[in-house]
Design a protein that fits this description.
Residues 5-135 form the Carbamoyl-phosphate synthase small subunit N-terminal domain. The protein has helices at 41-45, 100-106, 117-127, 141-148, 160-163, 189-196, 211-215, 235-247, 256-264, 304-309, 353-368; strands spanning 6-11, 16-23, 27-35, 53-57, 61-62, 81-83, 86-87, 110-113, 130-135, 169-171, 179-183, 201-205, 221-224, 251-254, 269-285, 291-302, 313-319, 325-330, 335-338. The chain has 369 residues and is α/β, with parallel strands linked by helices.
Length: 369
């Protein structure tokens, strides 16, 4: 790391950190957030839910096992920038396809290393999520502040249409009787893999696909994916979810899909102070009484106030760290959702049963036809 250029991280509140450049030499901005996962950095960087954000890895050693193409969670790196403590130019995993440095350079990702990420995370935990800028070519505060002022606020920002597929595609056995129309709001590859492993044939549609086109696939059920941005800025997806609810077919939503489903049911969402991003979030299944350790990545949540005032939607899961809503189920519809990632990748497998639950729901639907 001795030959690396100097780099600067400047937060919107004026806090400045100096370190060394990693990835591509350049300048990048976005909302800064932290992920507490001890592994799975490549999956984090390629998760479309991070589109428009700068990620801090709280694990102190990053890059030591390189990258493998098969571990990407989408077709490209989606983060805007990267902040780490100790960055490794070399890697020890003999099966790796690339070093993390080359991987970031090829993806045009600018980052900074050799800063006190523990102090930085404590600062953000106290002050809340905010915009930031990283540069290894502009080092004066005045120039950085000017660039930082151009970075859009995540509140009210619609981003799914930027990361969603442009063309439909299929995953799984085309001869399967269980067919799922997937609304791609920024889907992770392992979600589709988890469905296909259970015998589901998935057709993935762009975020702004009409219900009419979804129905032409003759699906057994519908899936609303994870993704980036503010759900309240996605009227198109909320309207689609409303129309799908009227059909009363099995429907499952994850993360952003959970928020969209909640909005379609008349609930509201809010911007969280920091959000939840990591692999160790405890969630209680309120219907079974079990506790799950979950993988999470979201900066918005479902507001409990309206949930408590109505009788059509039941809270099924609760985050045990802050008591936020982690799952819902419609009483009189075949629709449910969770605020976390049961497909993990990276993370624990405690919540994989939710895919089984969705498949069983669709099998019953087939039996009734």
């Amino acid at each position: 790391m001795e030959n690396h250029k100097k780099a600067v991280l400047l937060l919107a509140d004026g806090t400045r950190y100096e370190g060394i450049a990693i990835g591509k030499i350049g300048t990048t901005g976005g909302e800064i957030c932290f992920n507490t996962g001890m592994t799975g950095y490549q999956e984090i960087y390629t998760d479309p839910s991070y589109f428009g954000q700068i990620v801090i890895n709280t694990s102190s050693h990053i890059g030591n096992y390189g990258t493998i193409d098969a571990e990407n969670e989408s077709a490209s790196v989606k983060i805007n920038g990267l902040v780490v403590r100790n960055f490794s130019d070399i890697h020890s995993r003999f099966t790796a396809d690339n070093s993390l440095q080359n991987y970031l350079e090829e993806a045009n990702i600018t980052g900074i290393a050799e800063i006190d990420t523990r102090a930085l995370v404590r600062h953000i935990r106290n002050k809340g999520a905010m915009n930031a800028i990283i540069s290894s070519e502009i080092l004066t505060d005045e120039e950085l502040q000017n660039k930082l002022s151009e970075v859009p606020d995540m509140n009210g920002l619609e981003l799914s249409s930027f990361v969603s597929t442009k063309e439909t595609y299929t995953v799984g056995d085309e001869n399967s009787e269980i067919r799922v129309a997937v609304l791609d709001l920024g889907i992770k590859t392992n979600i589709l893999r988890s469905l296909a492993q259970r015998g589901v044939f998935c057709k993935v549609f762009p975020a702004k696909t009409s219900v009419k086109e979804l129905l032409e696939f003759n699906p057994t059920g519908f899936f609303l994916s994870n993704g980036p941005g503010d759900p309240s800025a996605m009227d198109y997806a909320v309207q689609t979810a409303k129309e799908l609810l009227e059909l009363d077919k099995p429907m499952f939503g994850i993360c952003l899909g959970h928020q969209i489903l909640a909005l379609a049911g008349g609930l509201s969402t809010y911007k969280m102070f920091n959000g939840h991003r990591g692999l160790n979030h405890p969630v209680k299944n309120l219907e079974l009484g079990n506790c799950e350790i979950t993988s999470q990545n979201h900066g918005f949540g479902v507001d409990r106030e309206l949930l408590n005032k109505q009788n059509e939607i039941v809270e099924t899961h609760k985050n045990l760290n802050d008591k936020s809503v982690a799952g819902i189920r419609f009483k009189n519809k075949k629709a449910f959702s969770v605020q976390y990632h049961p497909e993990s990748s990276p993370g624990p497998h405690d919540s994989r049963y939710l895919f089984d639950q969705f498949v069983e729901m669709m099998k019953k639907e087939k039996e009734m036809v």
